[in-house]
Structures are given as structure tokens and as C-alpha cells.
Amino acid sequence: EGEKITTLDNQKFDLTPQILIIADTQKPLAIAGIKGGKGPEIDSGTKIVVLEAANFNPAIIRKGSRGLGLRTDASLRFEHGVDPNLTESAINRAAYLIQKLALGKTANDSVDLYPQKVYPQKIKLDLNYAKNLLGIEIPEREIKNILTRLNFKVIGVRNPLSVEIPTSRLDILIPEDLIEEIGRIYGYDKVIPVFPTASLVPPKRNDDILWENTIKNIMKEAGFTESYNYSFQKDPSASSSQGPAEVENPTSQEYRYLRPSLMPNLLKNIEKNIKTFGQIKIFEIGKIFTDKTEKRMFTGVAAGHDFYQVKGVIDLLFDKLGVAKVWYDDYQATPEDSSKSLWKEKKSAEIKVGDVEVGFLGELKNEQKLVAFDLDFEKLKTLALEDQEYKSISKYPATIRDLAVLVPPTTKVEEVLNVMDIAGGSLVVDIDLFDIYEGEGIPDGQKNLAFHIIYQAQDRTLTSIEVYKIHQNIIKALEENPTWQVRK
User: I need a labelling partner for 488 at 20 to 30 A (CA). Which of 133, 235, 241, 349 fits?
Assistant: First the structure.
């Protein structure tokens, strides 16, 4: 630290402990691997010369050269690496030239300090791999000849060949380096260009993205706006009975828990925008979380719209997705976990496809009149992917009759539909629940279910007498239950 040196070209440099030097017991003599010092310079009066040859670590030389801002031929050579086994040959060559050209005499033998001798390494060369990599088959004899001419020693006669790399070839480290040398000498011009052969295979269809985009387009056509919300929330109270999924390192207390439902954030969106817009229809497709599971949901909220308007959108969605056998069962506190507190019991319905419950639709317990739906995206996707059985449309007209029945509040729509379906037989092609009502005009302890019944045959036009008889069979079957009453 603090030492100085003047180089052969009279430049002065301040030295640091990071710069490697050659020195005697008193002062630095040269900057190792970069430039010699002025002190030991040879001039016309020099009688005795001490020859020193060394090999240095490339990283140390580069660091010293950059630190001093000094680039020389020597530093460039050492930075790129020099064969350490050339050191002895170099000093012997210098001594020979001094003796021959300057009539010098050697005083004594050399002193050699070589703590870690570097030996030639061996590389396995697979001839088949060389053929595949170069794209051309070179005879084995030619490969051996090329390697020998490049001063590589080929050991063995069987594939793979063992090739000994001279220590002077610091650039040969892996089989690919050897193959490159073979190709370079053999001639790349001898490689015949061939178009690569590859089969064009379309990427596997991502059903999640396909159906998500399909649903988004349908909802946008229906006037809904897509919403994007964070997957985090502050309050864990809406979490399911399985427990809230808590974030280990939340960015803030506002984002401490993973959302167990899409509904709370959508309600916040409504609250922020309802004063500006009289009517709002928004939806979101995203993941919800518990402490053990996660799944994708499709949820929407509408402000300023009634139940049947939103139901019409859901019907449109199922129709465009090609999902049949969709029906609505009256809600009886069956939604899971936190969802129980969201829905008005007498103004909500379960959405079912066959026997599969896919979600809920109804008014929310909120100060504002909000209608919402909450659908399981995975179930919806599975239903949309199912092969649909084709059934030709009848060319004969259909007849529609309405029927209303009073039932106890605990009676599920499914029970009534089953009775009507069995009694109607094959000529009843569809039964659609269009109203569930309790209140004024309905006896206490009962609710009114209203249905559209569609009659149609594939081979003829049904007469009014035929329709009347089937309709009466349905009424008779319903009234066999003493707690049910068909309204007439």
C-alpha cells in the first residue's frame, strides 16, 4: 500500500495491494504480467542478466490492468490465458538466443517453482455425436488425421475415441470444441445444406382460456363489464369453515388474507360506482382460496336490474355454451360456508344442470337492490366440454300451457318437477319454472310455483284434446300429494 513504480516508458503508477508485482527485498521491480519497471532496465552497460519467466492468473492480471488503466501486449496475453508449461521452454529459448547472438554465458542452472503442475486433459469423442452435430459423416481415419495434425493425441481405436488435449490449447474444454476443430479443418463448405425436417403440430388447446374467453364475450354482449380485483382482502370473516388462507408476508394489513369469495370485492366495486351510474352490471372470473384448496369461480352483480333480467342472462349463457337440462331450484339455505349469509332466502335459487349444482342466483342481503350470481367455473367448463346428444327439432308446432301449484315452503322445486315429468311422459318436451312467490294472495305457510309446460310430438301436430288429457294427468298426479294444491 502506498508504493510507487516507474515503468520502462517512464510512467509513474501508485500501487495497491490488489496489484501483483515482482519485487526484491526493498522495492517493486515490475508490474507482474503487465509491464517492467525502470529500475532493472537493461542498457549498454549491463553485464549480468537474471532471466525470469512466469505464468499468472488471468483474472488477477485483468484486475490489475483495469485498476491501473494500463493495457499492454503482455497483459492481453495473460488475460486470455497462457500455457504454464511453456514457461520453461520460453526461458530456455531466451538463454539460447543470448548465448548465440550476444555471446553470453550461463552462470548456473535454472530454478523452477511449479507448485501445481498442469497435465494434459483427456476428452471422450463420440463419432456418432460428431456426425449428428456436423450434419456430415467424416471417415474415422480422416478425423484421426485431422486431430493428429492439430497436435492432439488420439488414444484408442474404438468409438468413442479418447483424445489428449495439449496444455497449450486452453480453448478446448468439451467434446463440442473438438468437433468444431474437426469441422473447421475438414471444411464447412463440404457440408451439404439440408432443410430441417419437423412436423407441424398445433399446440394443445387450453380449455381454461378457451371457455374463459367465450364466457367473457357472452357477458360483454349481454351488457356486463368485466372487473379485475386483487386476490387479497383485509377481513377474514367471509372465509369458509375450512379457515382463511393467510398470507405469510403481506404487503400491508389490507392484503392479509386470500379471498374466499369473489363477491365482497365486486360489492365494493358497486358501492364505489353506484352514485355515478344508475345501473351497473359487472362480473369477474378468478380464483378463490381456503387454507387447503383453491378453485375458479364466475361471479356477477347487477344493480338496478331485477331477478328475472339477470336470470335471462344466465339462460342465454347456458344456451350459447350448449349446456342443456338447466333448471332452477328454490333456495333453502344450501349454499356452502360463507355464502349462506349473502342470499335472500325467498328471492334466490340454486342453478342446476341435471343433478349437478353449479351455482346460485338471487337477490343479496344488501341495502341496495342487488341481484347476483355465483357459478363454479370448473363445473361450467366441464359441462360445456361434454358431448351433446343431437336431437332433431320437430317440424310440428309446440303447445304451451301454464300451471301453478301451492306447496309447503320446505318443498323443493325438484320434487314437483319429477312428478310433472313422469306424469307428462314423452310428449312433454320441457318444463320451465318461471316464478316462485310467497306473500300477498298466497295462504300462510305456502308458496306458489309457476311453470311453463311445453307439449310437442315428433311425428304429428298434437290436438287440443291430446294436450288437455296430458295436462289433466299432470294435475291429477300433483294433487295426489295432500299438501300440494294446483291453482285453477
Answer: 349
Q: Which fold has domain 4-101?
A: Phenylalanyl-tRNA Synthetase; Chain B, domain 3 (3.50.40)
N-term to C-term CA, the chain? 110
Which residue in this structure is represented by grid cell 519467466?
53
Mean pLDDT of successive 10-residue stretches along the chain, which has 488 residues? 86 88 89 88 86 89 90 90 88 90 82 86 92 90 93 87 91 93 92 83 87 94 93 66 72 83 91 87 92 89 90 92 84 51 78 89 86 94 76 87 92 88 90 85 89 92 93 93 89
E runs forming strands in 438-472: 447-455
SS3 221: helix
Could you give the CA distance from residue 309 to residue 361 in angstroms, rounded to a whole number? 11
**CATH code reported for the domain at 207-385:** 3.30.930.10
Tell me the CATH number for domain 121-190.
3.30.56.10
Q: In whole angstroms, how far apart are CA 83 and each of 55, 88, 194, 238, 468?
A: 8, 11, 40, 72, 106
d(CA 87, CA 108): 18
What the block records as the C-alpha cell of 236 is 377474514
CATH classification of 399-487 is 2.40.30.10, yes or no? Answer: no
